[in-house]
Amino acid sequence: MNDQSPQEGADGPERPAPRPFPNSDYVRPGIDDRPDLDKALTDEDKAAVARLAVRQKPKTPPAATDQPEVQAAAMGINAPVGGADEPVPDLGSAFLDMRDPMVDADGNRPTKTEILRMKIGFACTAFFLAFALAALNITLVPQELDTLGGPVGGAVALAWVLGVGILCAFIATIFFLPLSDHTRTPFGRRAPWFAGGTVVAVIFAFSLGACHTPVAVGIVWALLQIGLAAMMCTLHASLGERVPDKFRDTVGTWRTIGLLAGLVLGIWFGVLIVGDPAAGMDLCAVGLLVAGLVGLLVIPRESSTVYSRAKPMTNADLLVTLRVEHPSAAWRMLCLTRLFASAGAMLAIAFVWFVVRYRRGADAALDMRATMLMVALMGLLACAMALLGEGVTNLLRASIDNDRLVLVIGVALAIVAVIVPLVSYTTVGLYIFAGVGGFAVHMVDDALQVLAVSSIPIVDRAAGYLAVFNTSATLGRLVGVAVGGFVFAYAATFSSVFLWAAIMFACAGAAGAAVVAYAGQR
């Protein structure tokens, strides 16, 4: 017989339900009974609504040159081993207001799958771009020019080929970035320019193998750089615009890993393809094609910009990467330091193939395969020491908290690295140069990036200052190849290039000392 009362359960008496508040069950018409349209409408219904919707106030998307994260992405390309840890001042960041950091600049919220696709897409695109460019710059093009022009003629030809390519890419970037800002297509602003740049780059990369004179190589190389400029600038803009603030550091790390792997494997690719540079150039063209396909198909598609308003293009849009208003003296010295440091690094790296092959003299060239193998080993050693330099730089910064001292140490080590081959122009001396140089150049670049970010005088114009800072690096590379051309044209030995690299690093050290002096005055 069950003795429990109706109000009593197996675990004891049940508590009576609380009385509802007055009118708590009232349903507000049109508010509480409104359906969730995301769940109630099908995909076809949503597409029809989006097609028929009228946007009364179309927004004007910000220009790439006005976004600090876009310039930070471009700045990181100069240090493929790893960039500085200093956060870029961005007053438009979602972390500074009540906006959601999980959405991109256009207000879209990527899913976990789309974020994974961004990581893989940016990493693979960076890998294939770095692979092709490392193989072409370090091994294949120098080998082709050496065959066409001989030791001195080939080195001089390499200088003007690289110089014309840097100049064309620099001018093309000045125009392509604002033009892509004003592009309005269903595929977005950047995707059409990235696709067009891929087509141009692939066509002229395939054409490199058919060139039989240094002049032809220079013309085709310049046109190739124009296509690469369209790919690079739109890729940097996409990384800064389409990745939410929350995931930007992670995606940037994946891209860095892709850059490093592509750089190392691209240099070693030259060893495998030794003796047939034309076939290697064709395979590099395939690599550029794969980079373009990955960037367009793996990375999630851009949202349409047909409804976005565009402001008229002005001359100021073209000059934003060339000048800033009211720069301080310390900022000028910092840009000058980066210019000379980039020139010294370019002198030491761009002509390493000729330096290695003719270290015994122009009449006693090293075997082609031995040259390729030594250049590849030097590249691997430089990348490994750069990774070590990143850890040491972070340790120094944490212990002494003085980036100016880190810059001075890096410049001093860079000068030592380029002096060693002058004293001992041997295999051991060149390996020491590669190891110490890779360590020092990364330390210098890391310190300069941190100093540049922390020394921006007007925070709300950080993008313009970083753009000028990136331009100083480009101009430095142009100065480096120009000086290298004169050195190889008039110097008795190829090791003289290290003397001028030491002079450039010494000038960078002098400008860096001026930065320290200006900081002390403040």
- The CATH topology of the largest domain is Growth Hormone, Chain: A
N-to-C SSE series? EEHHHHHHHHHHHHHHHH
Roughly what fraction of the amino acids lie in strands? under 5%
Low-confidence stretches: none
Q: The biggest beta sheet, please?
A: 2 strands, antiparallel
Number of domains: 2
Query: Helix amount, in percent?
Result: 55-70%
- Helix segment count? 16
* End-to-end separation: 93 Å
Q: What's the CATH architecture of the largest domain?
A: Up-down Bundle
Rg, Cα atoms, Å: 28 Å
What would CATH call the class of the largest domain?
Mainly Alpha
Mind telling me the CATH superfamily name of the largest domain? Answer: MFS general substrate transporter like domains
Explain what this protein looks like in three dimensions.
The longest helix is centred in the N-terminal third of the chain and has 70 residues, at 112-181. Helix content is 68%, strand content 1%. It folds into two domains: 109-320, Growth Hormone, Chain: A, CATH 1.20.1250.20; 322-522, MFS general substrate transporter like domains (Growth Hormone, Chain: A, Up-down Bundle). 49% of the residues are buried. It has helices at 37-40, 43-52, 68-76, 112-181, 191-208, 214-242, 248-272, 277-297, 315-319, 329-350, 352-357, 368-400, 403-423, 427-454, 462-490, 496-521, and strands spanning 8-9, 12-13. It is built from 16 helices and two strands. By secondary structure, the chain is mainly α. Strand 1 (8-9) and strand 2 form a beta hairpin. It is a multi-pass membrane protein. Keywords: Membrane, Transmembrane, Transmembrane helix.
